[in-house]
Amino acid sequence: MLWYAAPATDWEREALPIGNGALGAMVFGTVASERLQFNEKTLWTGGPGSAQGYDHGDWRTPRPGAVQAVQDDLDQVRRLAPEVVADRLGQPRVGFGAYQTFGDLRLDLADPPTADGYRRALDLDDAVATVAYTGQGVRRHREFFASYPDGVIVGRLVADRPGLVSCTLRYSSPRTDFTAVAAGGRLTVRGTLADNGLRFEAQVQVRTTGGTVTCGADGTITVTAADSAWFVLAAGTDYADSHPDYRGADPHAAVTAAVDRASRHTYEGLKARHIADHRALFGRVALDIGQSSTADVPTDRLLASYTGGTSPADRALEALFFQYGRYLLIASSRPGSLPANLQGVWNQSTTPPWSADYHVNINLQMDYWLAEAAHLPETTAPHHRFVQALRAPGRHTAREMFGSAGWVVHNETNPYGFTGVHDWATSFWFPEAAAWLTQQLYEHYRFGGSTDYLRGTAYPVMKEATEFWLANLRTDPRDGRLVVTPSYSPEHGDFTAGAAMSQQIVHDLFTNTLEAAGVLGDSPAFRRRVEQALADLDPGLRVGSWGQLQEWKEDLDDPADDHRHVSHLFALHPGRQIGPGSAWAEAAEVSLTARGDGGTGWSKAWKINFWARLRDGDHAHRMLCEQLKSSTLPNLWDTHPPFQIDGNFGASAGVVEMLLQSQHGVVEILPALPAAWPDGSVRGLRARGGAVVDIDWADGKATYVGLTATRTRALTLRSGLVERGEITVEAVAGRRYAWR
Ligand code: FUC
Question: Which of 176, 227, 529, 538 has the fewest CB atoms in 10 Å of its CB?
Answer without folding.
Answer: 176
